[in-house]
Amino acid sequence: MGAQVQDLPDELLVQILGSVPKLDLKSARLTCIRWGNVGSKWLFRRVYFAPREATMQTFTNIATHPVFGRNLKALIYDRRLFLDDLLDFESYRQHYDYEITRKSETMVDFPGDEAHHENVALSLAQYKQFIVDQRDIFEGSKDFEVLSVGLRMLPNIVKIVCCDTVSDRKKYRSIFDHAKDDHEWYENRSTQEFGLAIKPRVWYKHMAPIEGKWSVLGFENFFRAVSLHCPSIKELQIGSETSKIPANMFGRLSAEDAQHAYLVAHRLTSLKLGVSLKSLTFDDDVPRLVSCLNRILNEARQLRTISFIGLGGFLFQDRHWPHLSSLELGDVYIEGKRLLEITRTHKDRLREVRLWYTTLHR
Fold it and tell me: Which residue of 126, 227, 264, 273 has the fewest CB atoms within a 10 Å radius of its CB?
């Protein structure tokens, strides 16, 4: 009798199942106990977390699973929030209508009848409940507690991504060829949780920030939990090509939480920052946020890969990373001589420089 697939050693079976699409892998794992154990290595490679009850419960279930937990390598932190400034009817109606138009990709004439008014009111009522649930989570530091418990069960997490959009990167793949992650499954599942309500908003909102400032709710707890419970972290991404984090979030970290950020930076070999300087207002403590960013970069002495999006060359001032081999600058305004200085300073190890939407000036 010829050799059968069951005769293959686990090492080969792992490689075979690793090439199977995720949906087919779920079916393949039901073949037998051996396939179930071997296939689990590929079923969950990353886990999502968001300050929402359903997502936190899923995170806990995966993190505490005796098989899935030990194979997880990445944590994706979904930083979208429900916003208090959408709680009055008129503001909510405008965004409700905007979302419907955006999804249809065509202009929509909204009736002024009672039925449309009722739909908006029903959606707003659900949105208000999401706000209440979100407040309970943050006021009780439940997000920090769940993150801490889960991360203690995930010793092999090496990559952390903090973002406010998880599904639109595929639209930009013709521009950003390296943006290959597909989060569509998570996005679809999350959207089902929101039902009629407007989804939690990204950092870039179509309205003025709350009281002229951007919320840092959850951001501090995220840094604190990661610094305490992710000793193996090597890669950190905050923001992305298509959605940058407001720079003033760094200026609004407390002294204690900033220290946690510095501890995280000390362990990193890869750092990607997508930061928007346009979100700054006259009320922001610019020197403090610049100091925080500078301290993070000073602590990150082991960096081999750096990607700065939306940040200027001032962050390279008198700074040298001895192991830097890959540098990416995107959507920045930088002096040509400063860029030349950067490449010369790191010429011993620097092997790749990637520029896009970069303006050079004298």
Answer: 126
